[in-house]
Amino acid sequence: MTRLLSTVFFASAFIWVAIEFFDVDIEVIKVLFIYSLLFVVLLILTGLIFSPVVSFFRRPRKSSLLEKAPTESSSKDEIN
Predict the structure, then answer these.
(1) Residue 31 in contact with residue 15, Cβ under 8 Å?
(2) Res 66: pLDDT
């Protein structure tokens, strides 16, 4: 909660300083805010789309060639 409050405080201070001291139009701030929201929404959607793909490739295989390889003790038992 403190991170959210500090983020809101510093963002609003940044916007106030930009408008008050650097004569930035309010329309520019509105467009920046809208594009920032669109960017965040697109990042969320991209994460939702690619998370199943990444989890599919990171899943361990059920059968592996190493599991099917004979061990030393079983190969000695077959010879005797």
Answers:
(1) no
(2) 60
